[in-house]
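Our consortium's second objective concerns turning raw sequence data into structural hypotheses that experimental partners can test. To show how far this objective has progressed, the report includes one record in full. It was chosen at random from the queue rather than selected for favorable results. The single chain below, 359 residues long, was entered without modification.
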Amino acid sequence: MRKKILAAIAAGLITLGSFTLPTQAATREKVAAIHVVKASDFQYWNADSPTLQKIVDFVEDVTNPNSANYIPPEDRIATFDMDGTFYCETAPLYFQEMMFFHRVLEDKSYQAPKKYVNLAKKIYPKVMAHEKRTPAEEKLHIDGLSEVYAGMTDEEYRAYVRDFMNTNEDGLTNLKRGEAFYLPMVEIISYLGNNGFAVYIDTACGVSTTRELVNGVIPIQPDRIIASDFVYTSTKMGKDAPDAHFFDRHKEKVVISGKPIIQNAKSVKIFSILNQIGKKPVLAFGNSSGDSGMLEYTLQDNKYRSMSFFVICDDTERELGNPKRAASDTALALKRGWNPISMRDEFKTIYGDNIKRVK
């Protein structure tokens, strides 16, 4: 079976004929067009990838009604972290944390609180140099991810996200933030969805940010996006408790309150799965310790065959890989029984072949 699958993948790649890897970043339209049903449809993985082999083996096994490992369609649940798992998080920080700098330092229509202006000026050089922020700096930065948008409606915030998506990624050539999807991982999402899996995003990124980034690009419905949440209020709520406030559609609107976001990370991801999915995943994909709860929970006492995967950012030419962290992450994955995915060794391309690290 293993040889047949690899042969099918290789044959599929050969018979593509006119297919060439994108020389620039794949546009959002090209990412949205990714459609993988069977092993021979994969285009962005190296044919000898151990991860691709494992995933194809798993899917063919658990979708075969004659297999002892058969999983009914209603229980085929797969969860994906976003940043660093199928979308860039290294250039040089998460999307919404970089958008904070834009909002505070560059947005001429907005007067940021002085504490955030001072913070941004202090830590922006650190971030660009990939240096650590102090715990206090990091906490204030996280608090600012909601406070600097206080008073915006969800629609206004998502429009702001769309505008920022058109800016260039830092540290990588020819890549806009709205295009920064890992093409091989998008193929996995497509493959699973086309083989009867319900695919969910379970991320620490904000829910409105995530929904806008993947909208029309990744085939995952908005109600299958689990993420960190803004705290909302209304323009007439005042000191009312939300569960005691009568919302008058003629006189008020729902807006971001500015209170710190409700974080969806580590063990909270487990609670989110319980609350919003109601079933244990059989596949989980992450890239950092923030995904550990989801990865571990998937493997714990699962009544079905299950696997967890860990994307390793070890590519220092086509991505902003850090060899020291990559080695540490690989060791952690192997220790915990998560399958490591080497971006350097297993991805034929990441964003497109003309996307390089800025030297």
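The partners drew two points from this record. Residues 3-18 have pLDDT under 50 and may be disordered. The chain has two domains: 2-89+176-229+264-346, 92-168+246-261. Both points have been shared with the crystallography group to help prioritize constructs.
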